[in-house]
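Supplementary Methods. Inverse-folding protocol.

Structures were first reduced to a discrete structure-token string of length 417. This string, shown here, constituted the complete conditioning input.
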């Protein structure tokens, strides 16, 4: 069973001392969160106004009628990229005002706090639409990092230059079904997890996924050290979300110190220019800046890192021979690797499926995935594969190769040819 979380319905009060509970690892979904805090209308109008400026009044009116999830029907990918940049700029200007409502109203913070200068603004169009112009996705990801237009791999926020003691308030501006949202892996919280750069290592198992269905204004509130990732958009709608990173004490940067965190008592006022100084008065900030300057001058080389696998299983040469194992050794609704390239899934009590281990999207190891609703689910971006055909809901992706299996009593034989 997928891990649980605490859902706070629209007619239920926000739990007292929510920040302390989140820091301990609890995950909450607060329904109508942005509406309760009085910031939803302003955030939505900020997005609509930016779209109006970039794509015109007619496009903005169509989106206002049809919802943000319909943006890709009226706005080109280039325009979505430009609108994301503009919304981010305006959200950065408004962040002190918005967070001043979120920190006390949601988290129960009564004293000074820190928050990331620029909220993360995200538009994830359907993967099949994005695949029609991969250049936009690559260009934007190179400029702004993963997670904006392109899916973000499994990560912790501290791996991408953020503090390890932050609270993430991840909110829906448009409707976000679980096929196009956020995945959290609570089993990995506070567990030593190997990584490659800012992503979880290929051979690491993040555990059971936690997925969500969100209406506009709903928010997921979780500790930034939870391993989390983007769901590869397998729906017909575009995800529009905004997230705020808030720290109730001085930010601690265990890795790099790229992101700027502002002190609440200085931000937005006459001393706004000094709001970033308290968080930056740390060796982590100096070290990160000196390291960046040294690399630019050629005085320091980038550290060599083990690369995660990334190749399409359909491009590999067929295997040969057979592999056998006992049916009773494989629990129901679980997966197990039988070779370096092939895994098996037991779906329910009797169905056995053998398939390539590499996800055709990014090379995630399906042997470390889970079975959800009878489908094999990749641990990297929650992409699901039909055990009958090997296909996913993303039609532009190749199918996963399937292998013949035979069950005789307790023995399962997989034909690898």
């Amino acid at each position: 069973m997928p891990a649980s979380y605490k859902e706070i319905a629209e007619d239920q009060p926000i739990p007292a001392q929510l920040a302390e509970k989140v820091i301990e690892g609890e995950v909450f979904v607060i329904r109508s969160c942005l509406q309760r805090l009085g910031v939803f209308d302003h955030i939505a109008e900020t997005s609509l106004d930016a779209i109006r400026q970039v794509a015109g009044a007619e496009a903005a009116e169509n989106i206002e009628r049809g919802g943000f999830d319909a943006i890709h029907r009226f706005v080109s990918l280039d325009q979505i990229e430009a609108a994301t940049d503009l919304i981010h700029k305006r959200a950065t200007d408004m962040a002190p005002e918005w967070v001043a409502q979120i920190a006390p109203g949601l988290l129960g913070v009564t004293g000074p706090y820190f928050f990331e200068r620029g909220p993360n603004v995200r538009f994830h169009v359907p993967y099949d639409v994005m695949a029609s112009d991969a250049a936009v996705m690559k260009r934007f990801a190179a400029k702004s990092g993963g997670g904006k237009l392109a899916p973000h791999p499994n990560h912790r926020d501290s791996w991408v230059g953020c503090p390890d003691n932050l609270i993430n308030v991840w909110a829906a501006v448009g409707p976000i079904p679980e096929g196009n949202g956020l995945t959290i892996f609570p089993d990995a919280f506070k567990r030593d997890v190997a990584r490659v750069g800012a992503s979880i290592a290929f051979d690491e198992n993040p555990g059971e996924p936690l997925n969500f269905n969100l209406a506009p204004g709903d928010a997921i509130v979780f500790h930034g050290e939870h391993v989390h990732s983007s769901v590869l958009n397998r729906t017909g709608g575009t995800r529009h979300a905004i997230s705020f990173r808030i720290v109730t004490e001085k930010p601690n940067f265990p890795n790099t110190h790229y992101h700027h965190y502002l002190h609440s008592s200085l931000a937005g006022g006459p001393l706004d220019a000094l709001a970033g100084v308290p968080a930056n008065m740390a060796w982590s900030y100096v070290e990160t800046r000196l390291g960046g300057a040294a690399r630019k001058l050629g005085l320091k080389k980038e550290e060599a890192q083990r690369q995660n696998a990334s190749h399409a299983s359909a491009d590999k040469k067929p295997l040969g021979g057979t592999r056998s194992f006992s049916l009773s050794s494989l629990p129901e609704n679980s997966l197990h690797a039988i070779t370096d390239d092939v895994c098996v899934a037991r779906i329910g009590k009797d169905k056995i499926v053998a398939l390539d281990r590499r996800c055709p999207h990014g090379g995630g190891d399906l042997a470390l995935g889970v079975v959800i609703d009878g489908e094999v689910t990749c641990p990297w971006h929650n992409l699901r594969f039909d055990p009958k055909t090997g296909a996913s809901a993303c039609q532009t992706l190749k199918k996963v190769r399937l292998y013949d299996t035979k069950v005789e009593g307790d023995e399962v034989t997989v034909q690898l040819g």
